[in-house]
Specification:
Elements (H helix, E strand, L loop, with lengths): L1 H24 L7 H23 L1
Helix pairs in contact: 1-2
Keywords: Membrane, Transmembrane, Transmembrane helix
Length: 56
């Protein structure tokens, strides 16, 4: 169960990083890149923490 949650959070991290790149390339059509990058960082940290908990 925890591994699947970790995988979902990892996929969300990847998508948020891609959205961050898009917001840097097209700043007038998307939200601030800092918000997207912060959300990607939080998802990445949660993904790693969840994966580590699943190994115990």
């Amino acid at each position: 169960m925890l591994k699947s949650i970790s995988g979902i959070l990892g996929a969300a991290t990847l998508l948020l990083l891609l959205a961050t790149v898009g917001s840097v390339m097209f700043p007038e059509k998307t939200p601030s890149w800092a918000i997207l990058f912060g959300a990607a960082t939080v998802c990445g940290v949660l993904s790693v923490m969840t994966f580590r908990q699943s190994k115990k």
